[in-house]
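Suppose you are handed a protein chain with no further information: no name, no annotation, nothing but its sequence. What can you learn? This example shows the usual starting point.
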Amino acid sequence: MTKYPVNKIILFSSVDGPGNRTVIFLQGCNFDCKYCHNPETRSLCTGCGLCVAKCPAGALKKEEKEGITRVIFSPGKCVGCDTCIHTCPHDASPRIRYMTAAEAFETVKKQMPYIRGVTVSGGECTLYPAFIRELFALCKEASLSTFIDSNGTYDFASDPELMEVTDSVMLDIKAFSEKDHLAVTACGNKKVLENALFLAERGKLFEVRTVVVPTLYDAEGAILETGKLLRDYAGEVRYKIIAYRPMGVREEYSHYPVPEDAVLQGYAESLRKMGWCDIVII
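A reasonable first move is to predict its three-dimensional structure. Written in structure tokens, the prediction is:
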């Protein structure tokens, strides 16, 4: 059975989809968002070992096997101080557990019947569609709802098996114009916007989200254009407007100003005039 890099599992969350949910974060992302609030999920550990000596709890050690150096993580010793993450120069984390979907589901089962469902996030979880398909199939057998938190680059239309076991997707709209999206993420967004419509048309788009980062890109334009794009589904989809905050951001991108609440409220009011009724500002 194939094992996949799991960054962490949050047993109970009320902010990652409807109801109380268990959230599984997978390691690795194909975007380089300037405002990323968990950059330690972007890359896989290179095995450089810089974090090993820094760990105050002795939860990390270097191991060489077949000419490859790896950092081995002992979860039982970890005190969650994040020293390793702050030490890593590669936007990675040594605290990865490689798990099969069945092993991840064993952790999920311990929360039943106290959770409504499971959300898979990242990083970008759709880099591992086979993991999601297998996990969600198990969730469905247990009558748990299934949500994906995604940057929207996966070709959902080409994967009917995944769509069959996925109840809904929470989709990030990082920017609307191609130029802005490249500036924010270093990637294009043609597939992201196609997915927004594809998922909405099939009743599988739970929410779209935009992080407002003043001076980085045209956030107002992104919100208004996304609102227009999905206007026909405004009564069914939530729009979450998120204020940029520097906590957790890489130091070189921590200088952007925090948007004023009045500005965010103004964006929300513009959406309401289009017919959007479920708008959340955080």
